[in-house]
Amino acid sequence: MSALRYLLVSGWAVWLGSIVFFSFVVAPTTFHALGREAAAPLLRAVFPRYYLVGLLSGAAMLAAALGLGAGLPVTIPIVVGLVIVAYVRQVVTPAVNRARERGDDDAFARLHLVSVQLNLVVLAVLLLLGTIVAGLARV
Q1: Of 37 and 78, the one with more pLDDT
Q2: How far is CA 87 from the centre of its chain?
Q3: pLDDT in tens, 83-114
Q4: Sequence-ordered list of residues with C-beta below 8 angstroms from that of 54, at least 6 positions apart, any chain
Q5: Which domain holds residue 11?
Q6: What backbone phi and psi angles, to 5 degrees, belong to 35?
Q7: Which of 37, 38, 84, 114 is the most exposed place for a label (fewest CB within 10 A)?
Q8: What is the pTM of this model?
Q9: Secondary structure, 3-state, 37-68
Q10: pLDDT grade, residue 136 (50/70/90)?
Q11: How far is it, in rounded angstroms, from Cα 127 to Cα 2?
Q12: pLDDT at res. 139
């Protein structure tokens, strides 16, 4: 497998794995083990790094896809995922934090739901993209 194909597949695996592991293992386990009040500050500190993993993995994927001459069916989903992750990291997450600091439970719940929904969109994009990436990974 060429280095660019390896980078594409690795970026996809890291990005997908980080979403699955954080969303379905780390976050629920943290809330269960620590309780809501203790878990919130910990997860608040983790979220920017979590999204940074997505941005770095997606950027590596995009660079590899462009280097391989991959077409729009590969590059567009990567760009869509990157835009969503950047938006959630830079806009939604700070808004969630401000709502929590103000004690605005309605805004917090609404913004948290937006964050969860956008994470699920990225997860779905990556799962669908996996079939294409697997085809490009063939030696």
Answers
A1: 78
A2: 11
A3: 999 999 999 999 999 999 999 999 999 999 99
A4: 15, 18, 19, 81, 82, 85, 122
A5: 3-137
A6: 85, 160
A7: 37
A8: 0.91
A9: HHHHHHHHHHHHHHHHHHHHHHHHHHHHHHHH
A10: low
A11: 22
A12: 47
Residue 112 has a CB neighbour count (10 Å cut-off) of 16
Number of domains in the chain: 1
Residues 6+ apart with CB under 8 A from 48: 89, 93
Segment 72-89, tens digit of pLDDT = 999 999 999 999 999 999
Q: What is the per-residue burial (b if ≥16 Cβ within 10 Å, else e) of 45-77?
A: eebeebbebbbebbebbbebbeeeebeeebeeb
Q: DSSP string covering the chain, please?
A: --HHHHHHHHHHHHHHHHHHHIIIIIHHHHHHHH-HHHHHHHHHHHHHHHHHHHHHHHHHHHHHHHHHT--HHHHHHHHHHHHHHHHIIIIIHHHHHHHHHHT-HHHHHHHHHHHHHHHHHHHHHHHHHHHHHHHHH--
Contact 56, 15 (CB under 8 A): no
| Residue-wise pLDDT tens digits, 54-73 | 999 999 999 999 999 999 99
Overall residue count recorded for the chain in this entry: 139
Q: Which amino acid is at 91?
A: V
